[in-house]
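Input/output pair, single chain:
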Amino acid sequence: MESLKDYLRVKDAAEMLGVSDNTIRNWSRAGKLPSYRHPINNYRLFKKDDLLALVRGIQPSREAPGGGDEDI
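Output:
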């Protein structure tokens, strides 16, 4: 396992994504967000890189459909 500083607990992951703790748990159970377990206390952990990839994947495009060069 990588350094634990590269991981966030449920509460911290939820705060980072702006969703509830239960949403993070549900996404994990559904396989939408990979989770790992702390080797000592078995807490659910999430890689920061996985969370950032999720954020990048759901951010809306800033361009209007069709290139945005249309006259209004």
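The two ends are 54 Å apart (CA to CA). The first helix runs from residue 10 to 17.
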